[in-house]
Design goal:
The protein is α/β, with parallel strands linked by helices. It has one domain: Rossmann fold. It is globular, with a radius of gyration of 18 Å.
Amino acid sequence: MELNDAQLLRYSRHILLPEVGIDGQARIAGTSILIVGAGGLGCPVALYLGAAGIGRLVLADGDTVDLTNLQRQIGHATAAIGMNKAESLAASVRAINPEIDVHAMPNTLDRDALHEVVATVDLVIDASDNFATRHAVNRACVVRKKPLVSGAAIGFSGQVAVYDPRRDTSPCYHCLFPDAAGEPELRCAEAGVFAPLVGVVGAMQATEALKLAVGAGETLTGRLLLWDGLRADVRVMKVPRDPACPVCGPAAAQAG
């Protein structure tokens, strides 16, 4: 994909980076990404990826903007209260970069719809806020062999990881966090979340996605990054693939 003069100017600060350059920016422009969730994490992810020139963004969220969201969900304005989050965020991304293709899916994706849209993109970003959605997205990515950038944030703590089923050694989300249906989980409405935390985690997710698009650097594949906002402490743990994983292990492949 060739960049025109306006694009060369818009993305000039990327192009100056030897790890990106014109070819890397062209790869960014040719990449399509699904973002599941248009809330605290989805907002900074979508805004940064849109500004960076990702060619096609698909935003999926069935929720509507609420007054309590505005403390941290920077892709939504006060005037968007009551509006679907995917549509509100899509409008914000278009305002930053009207050149890219932004598609809003204003509904919660069921299994078939999720698998269908995952098949049409190059990589997926999980910016959801519940285990059921995270496991569903993980399964779709494993089946379709699409890289998954996962993030989570609660209180003052966040985490980011990359799962790449194209690599034989890569774990999947289930390898780290086995599906424990029925177990209680904390959400922002009950536990609270520090406003900038979702920006930190979302920016990290956008960074990993752009590295995957460009093919630059070393991603967090096989590693889990943990961020403690209160202590300004970062830990990165190596995470092996679970050979007995029912989602990405040999038994799952034979069953599929």
